[in-house]
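Ops channel
N.P.: pipeline sanity check, posting one input/output pair.
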């Protein structure tokens, strides 16, 4: 049964299921965890000789430089901003000299600009870095924007927009996403273990200024240390609870997480706030606490560095703009010649052509794989096995979408609800014909955008 049909035709039954806490199980896939760095406390890498900072690190409009070549800059200094609503400022992660402002093709194939800074190694902090004065919700939202914060779980959605929904009076639940269901990545798990107090403080700030009563912290059951720590930290806090989730991909996808923790369905065209919830990544909410104490904007983050081509996999605190090459060198360099380098995880990450790409705000992992672990699979015709349907967590029909895309049938794409696709990759993962189903779903979405 299609997900959209279930919503439209079984609303009454759905409400009954939710009220009785008899939820239907969402589909997904069991993937190997490969959490090799789970017990690796994050270490800070030395300041690199230079950083390359893209001016589009968020969903929305790129920023415009506020500095020029040969300018001296300091840590935390504003480098670029935009007057557009869907945008957040970019700050310097090092002190040094601007050596270039040049075009750059990012990992998504979008042309933007970058600011290249030669580090002086001093890490002199800019005079503008001061804790913000926050006395109201408006002050809080303004401070979040000024910090340059975006969702650190992967999407890069501007956080100040997420925290300012039009129907805030209807939002009663804050969900903290700590599922981290992608293989290899352990950065969020380490956030809980190394920075749990800031996670709680960040939650308290969000709930205070937004007037939210209930807090759910979702963590997969393969992260027992994190579960135990957060359960201890929420003792005595009314409205707080830790929900232990099954280790199943894509448990951390926003719509899936909302359903698994509350039983609510975010329908096509809706935002989570329309169902009374706001979802924040654990690292995002922890940063808020840090920023309110120090005033230091988002200039560095924790990334997991792993894969069969990496000599010493570990979690690393890196400055925004540091090149993959420098980060992997800090991790002992390459143990084997890399055949595939990913920005992000193996399910939803993006392959990059080389290690000259810089870390951006929503980059949570760098994975490098040797030849034997990165073999390309030949796409063959669909055999109509329906495995993709059984794996899809939102009950779409990927094979039918594949056919509609190749037939350029936009009406069929609308009927098949391609816009509900969360691009998790479950369909492609289970496909014995190696169909590029995620790509075709993206193409289908683009066809409908062009139609509109």
């Amino acid at each position: 049964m299609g997900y959209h049909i279930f919503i439209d035709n079984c609303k009454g039954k759905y409400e009954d299921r939710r009220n009785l806490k008899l939820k239907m199980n969402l589909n997904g896939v069991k993937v190997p965890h490969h959490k090799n760095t789970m017990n690796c406390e994050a270490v800070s890498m030395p300041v690199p000789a230079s950083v390359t900072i893209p001016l589009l690190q968020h969903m929305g409009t790129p920023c415009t430089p506020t500095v020029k070549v040969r300018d001296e800059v300091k840590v935390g200094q504003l480098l670029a901003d935009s007057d557009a609503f869907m945008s957040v400022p970019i700050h310097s992660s090092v002190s040094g000299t601007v050596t270039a402002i040049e075009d750059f093709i990012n990992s998504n194939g979008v042309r933007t600009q970058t600011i290249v800074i030669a580090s002086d190694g001093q890490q002199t902090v800019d005079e503008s870095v001061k804790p913000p004065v926050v006395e109201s919700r408006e002050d809080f939202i303004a401070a979040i924007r000024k910090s340059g914060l975006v969702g650190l779980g992967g999407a890069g959605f501007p956080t100040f927009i997420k925290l300012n929904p039009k129907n805030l009076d209807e939002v009663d639940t804050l969900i903290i996403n700590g599922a981290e269901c992608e293989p290899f990545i352990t950065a969020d798990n380490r956030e809980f273990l190394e920075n749990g107090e800031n996670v709680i403080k960040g939650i308290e700030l969000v709930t205070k200024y937004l007037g939210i009563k209930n807090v759910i912290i979702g963590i997969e059951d393969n992260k027992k240390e994190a579960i135990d720590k957060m359960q201890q930290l929420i003792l005595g806090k009314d409205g707080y609870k830790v929900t232990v989730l099954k280790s199943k991909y894509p448990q951390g996808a926003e719509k899936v997480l909302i359903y698994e923790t509350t039983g609510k369905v975010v329908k096509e065209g809706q935002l989570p706030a329309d169902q009374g919830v706001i979802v924040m990544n654990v690292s995002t909410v922890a940063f808020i606490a840090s920023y309110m104490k120090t005033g230091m904007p988002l200039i560095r983050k924790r990334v997991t560095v792993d894969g069969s081509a990496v000599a010493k996999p570990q979690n690393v605190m890196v400055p925004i703009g540091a090149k993959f090459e420098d980060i992997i060198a800090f991790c002992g360099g390459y143990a084997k010649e890399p055949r595939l380098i990913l920005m992000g995880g193996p399910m939803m990450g993006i392959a990059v052509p080389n290690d000259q790409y810089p870390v951006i705000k929503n980059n949570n992992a760098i994975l490098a794989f040797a030849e034997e672990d990165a073999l390309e699979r030949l796409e063959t015709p669909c055999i109509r096995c329906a495995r993709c349907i059984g794996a899809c967590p939102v009950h779409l029909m990927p094979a039918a979408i594949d056919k509609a895309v190749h037939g350029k049938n936009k009406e069929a794409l609308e009927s098949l609800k391609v816009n509900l696709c969360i691009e998790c990759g479950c369909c492609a993962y289970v496909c014995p014909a190696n169909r590029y189903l995620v790509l075709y779903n993206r193409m289908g979405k683009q066809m409908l955008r062009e139609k509109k």
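N.P.: looks fine end to end. Residues 47 and 220 are 34 Å apart (CA to CA).
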